[in-house]
Write a structure and sequence with these properties.
It is a single chain. With about 450 residues, this protein is of the alpha/beta class. The chain is about 35% helix and about 20% strand. It has 2 domains: about 110 residues, Urease, subunit C, domain 1; about 300 residues, Alpha-Beta Barrel (TIM Barrel). The protein has 14 helices and 17 strands. A hairpin with a 2-residue loop joins strand 15 and strand 16. The longest helix has 16 residues. The relative contact order is 0.17. The mean pLDDT is about 95. The structure holds the ligand Nc1nc2[nH]c(O)nc2c(=O)[nH]1. The site of ligand LDV2AJBS has 12 residues, from helix 1.
């Protein structure tokens, strides 16, 4: 029997009232009991002393590009379009080995910031460079996080009016066939699934309308989710208006891309009408505050989206547009950016934690299994130590978790199994992960100057 008991922690279920001194019982990968006071004594249990800690659901990262671990720090003062045009020149060299290495490095880093489920939007598939999807799935298994592999695609190169060079795009039919193959081979719909696949054409300026429509058709025929970048920058909005005569959200709606099975990355530039359409259709938004600030894209209208009832998750975005961001730190960043725009009541600590957990699970279509501490849900838990120097004078544990620097992690469990213990990764060594990230960096950036 795999049984873990966490005793004496401040428990923040997210979906229900907090328990100041409570216990959690996790058995065979699920949460079986949550209660106040000390835990009952149980045989064959690993007992964790949770005093001085806050227990939350494991964090859910709703948008990332793990391969960008290899190209961090480049084009650091550029707009999204400039940054992309420069980066494509390196990304077109990636292969399955680079993807395996960056997946290990990126997921190891996420695990060490309390993340237990990560979506990865991978949209670069150079021909003849190995099985990139299989390499990523295998690397994620080694790190031990749940993966939502958003199988991206681009078919609109420069010659068709798109932003990327023709050398990095796939054909329409090739992209759809490969995406279908990724679903058939790797998508596991089980409750305790470690790997889900979503259909994720990249963005309106790199994907044809036919690929957007074909992707929606494919995803709905397979019962998987849809993801893309949308409304990230003013440049995108202007290009969309010029080419399609409408805003990005109107364009998405025309293509059948609003609904409870869709989530967009960013959603920064939204009219009141667009906010309402997103909320009314149950479309999710992956809010990536650090990346939006790093690229100077703008500030997402997260307060209005939440008020309207839209599902909103948090995402670190690719490490090349938000260098080494920790998912836990995105909670703080989201609060600060919302308040810089609308004042001190724009977003609070518990709303930020909700986005980082249940909001992310809603975006990924996994709110039945993940994102809150509830009996019957998966035993994905983060236990944060908040009694040390720098945290011990903040009385509210959720304020300590979200306003200050991310607290040290006592434990991160995925399905009841430890991935991080006392800050140390347990599944792969941090030295191995760092080495893998550096190797990928050298392979992609050699002979390129910027
Ligand atoms: N932040 C990002 N935005 C994007 N748009 C697009 O087409 N690709 C990207 C990306 O990698 N990051």
């Amino acid at each position: 029997m795999n049984r873990v008991v966490i005793d004496g922690a401040h428990i923040v279920p997210v979906s229900e009232a907090e328990i100041p001194h409570g216990h959690l019982i996790l058995e065979e990968g699920r949460i079986t009991h949550i209660g106040a006071g000390p835990a009952p004594s149980l045989p064959q249990a690993r007992r964790i002393d949770g005093r001085g800690c806050v227990a939350t659901p494991g964090l859910v990262n709703s948008h990332n590009h793990l391969y960008q671990w290899a190209t961090q720090g480049l084009f650091a003062d550029n707009t999204l379009f400039e940054w992309l045009v420069g980066s494509y020149e390196m990304w077109h060299r990636l292969d399955a080995e680079v993807v395996a290495d960056t997946t290990v490095a990126g997921l190891a880093h996420l695990a060490r910031s309390g993340c237990t489920t990560a979506s990865d939007h991978h949209y670069i598939y150079p021909a003849g460079r190995g099985d990139i999807v299989a390499a990523e799935v295998d690397a994620a298994r080694r790190v031990g996080l749940r993966l939502d592999l958003a199988r991206g695609s681009m078919d609109r190169g420069h010659s068709a009016g798109g932003l990327p060079p023709d050398s990095v795009v796939e054909s329409l039919d090739g992209a759809l066939a490969a995406t279908e193959d990724a679903i058939d081979t790797h998508h596991d719909p089980a409750f305790d699934s470690m790997t889900r696949v979503s259909v994720a054409p990249c963005s309106p300026f790199s994907v044809s309308a036919d690929l957007m429509r074909g992707s929606a058709e494919l995803a709905r025929s397979k019962g998987v989710r849809l993801h893309t970048h949308l409304a990230e920058t003013i440049d995108e909005e202007e290009k969309c208006t010029r080419e399609f005569g409408c805003s990005p959200v109107e364009y998405a709606e025309k293509l059948g891309w609003l609904g409870t099975d869709v989530w967009f990355a960013h959603g920064v530039h939204l009219s009141d009408h667009a906010v309402q359409r997103i909320a009314d259709t149950g479309t999710g938004i992956a809010h990536c505050p650090t990346s939006n600030a790093r690229l100077g894209a703008g500030i997402c209208r997260v307060t209005e989206l939440l008020d309207a009832g839209a599902p909103v998750g948090l995402g670190v975005d690719g490490p090349a547009s938000s260098e080494l961001t920790q998912l836990s730190a995105e909670m703080r960043q989201s609060i600060l950016m919302a308040r810089a725009r609308l004042g001190p009541t724009a977003l609070n600590a518990r709303q930020a934690l909700h986005m980082a957990t249940l909001g992310g699970a809603q975006c990924l279509g996994r709110a039945h299994e993940l994102g809150s501490l509830e009996v019957g849900k998966l035993a994905d838990v983060a236990l944060w130590r908040i009694d040390g120097f720098g945290y011990d004078v903040i009385d509210d544990p959720v304020v300590a978790l979200t306003f200050g620097p991310p607290p040290p992690l006592e434990l991160v469990l995925v399905g009841g199994s430890p991935v991080v213990e006392r800050g140390e990764l347990r599944t792969v060594s941090i030295g191995t992960a760092a080495h893998a990230g550096r190797a990928a960096h050298h392979r992609l950036t050699q002979e390129v100057s910027c």
